DNA sequence: ATCGAGCTCACGGAAAACCGTGAGCTAAAA
DNA sequence: TTTTAGCTCACGGTTTTCCGTGAGCTCGAT
């Protein structure tokens, strides 16, 4: 029992049912030890100020500070845990985003419980781990013919939206209209319309409803 | 071991991680036995054609047939399991909806794992179970002064939307505009606008974006 | 048999969203 | 230092949404 140096894991998810569930699953594995858990991003950051773990299982959709925020917090720290992102959606855009800011693995929640064990061990071993559907999507992106692959990237990898656009996107997804957004941000309605226009183009949706849906799917609200 | 007649439980959720997690949690309880699980509503209905359980833990947001659909399927059956609805959102409107069509309990996913054990035992015992936040909301609705309570009900309990309105709502949430919806349903754009108007009024939102958000929050898509 | 709920449709006007296009400013990157 | 990316704003025209109001039809409940 004292022989193995267990992998210390911290779990962050706003659904306590899921945390308790994952804990119960991981308890069956001898190499893994759950040393902490958090219900929101703020608590995660707080926890790591006075504790440390080898791996962090991180949900994207959390109150206060979300998974993205936590990743950004860790991004300029030298000593940080390996991070497995947990998400309801296996959205390739989201995968790209979180990889860019320091995630080591990506696990869709639809995966079997056993996979989370595998994911933790894999990232702890210094490799990257992706659940099946994600893996396939990534591969298919780079397996296309040369001329097609560039277009495919244009189509799938969104030219990332700017900070300002993100603000507008969030407000649109909160049911505010152009005039109200302009007032809140102290900018002209014309400017808001320009941003909305660019968002619609970049995110390849048809209208404000599409933007709101995108925002909700990507847990921006 | 053979002494206790265990409570047979079936779990339905589209996230296998959650199923495996709940299974692991329930395994620690001597009175409960997980006898099956499903990843979508169709499988749930299929399973119960040749099996039975005492309690069904049912997620609302599932592909193919969602939790609502499963409840409706059970609603006119004599022999059906007690049902605990599991949902990401502790939306009082949703609670009212599922209770009306036969749910026995309502558990928000943010609850602790232990609560699911309690919920299963409670509904199996013939009582209703609600997680804390939901309980509070229900109580607060009926604890108000007489003159206020009626208004409060008007505000919180939505005058339920009709089947046709639901169809339109779903299509709006899929980014279709009025003309497209009219074509798909073979009705006039005027009619679609009427339905949309009534939806905006009934759901107390400001515009189509609000409708889309409502639809997504309530997992109608 | 009457009543109400649900679905259908129409019309007209106001408001908001949508679209293209062009352009000035600033700060950071090449 | 030149260039680029991001934020800002304007304008005119088209399309869509929003809103009130009224009305006919059907079906099931009272």
Automatic annotation (TrEMBL), chains A, B:
Pfam families named among the record's database cross-references: GerE, Response_reg
Record PTM 4-aspartylphosphate, positions in chain: 59
Coiled coil: none
UniProt-listed SMART domains: HTH_LUXR (SM00421), REC (SM00448)
Domain Response regulatory residues, every copy: 8-124
InterPro entries with a match to the protein in the record: CheY-like_superfamily, NreC/VraR/RcsB-like_REC, Sig_transdc_resp-reg_C-effctor, Sig_transdc_resp-reg_receiver, Tscrpt_reg_LuxR_C, WalR-like
Keyword set, alphabetical order: DNA-binding, Phosphoprotein
Domain spans labelled HTH luxR-type: 154-219
Name of the protein in question: Response regulator transcription factor
Species name: Urechidicola vernalis
Lineage, highest ranks first: Bacteria, Pseudomonadati, Bacteroidota, Flavobacteriia, Flavobacteriales
């Amino acid at each position: 029992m004292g022989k193995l140096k267990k992998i210390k894991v911290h779990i962050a998810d706003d659904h306590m049912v899921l945390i308790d569930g994952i804990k119960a699953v991981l308890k069956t594995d001898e190499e893994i030890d759950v040393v902490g858990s958090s219900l929101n991003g703020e608590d995660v950051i707080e926890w790591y100020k006075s504790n440390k773990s080898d791996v962090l299982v991180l949900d994207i959709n959390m109150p206060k500070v979300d998974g993205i925020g936590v990743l950004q917090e860790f991004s300029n720290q030298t000593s940080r845990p390996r991070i497995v992102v947990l998400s309801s959606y296996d959205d390739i855009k989201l995968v790209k985003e979180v990889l860019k800011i320091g995630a080591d693995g990506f696990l869709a929640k639809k995966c079997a419980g056993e996979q989370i064990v595998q994911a933790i061990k894999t990232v702890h071993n210094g490799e990257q781990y992706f659940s099946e559907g994600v893996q396939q999507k990534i591969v298919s992106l780079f397996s296309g013919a040369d001329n097609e692959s560039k277009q495919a990237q244009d189509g799938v990898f969104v030219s990332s939206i700017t900070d300002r656009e993100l603000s507008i996107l969030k407000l649109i997804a909160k049911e505010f209209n152009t005039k109200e957004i302009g007032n809140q941000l102290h900018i002209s309605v014309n400017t808001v319309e320009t941003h909305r226009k660019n968002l619609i183009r970049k995110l390849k949706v048809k209208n404000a409803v599409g933007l709101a849906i995108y925002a909700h799917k990507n847990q921006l609200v």
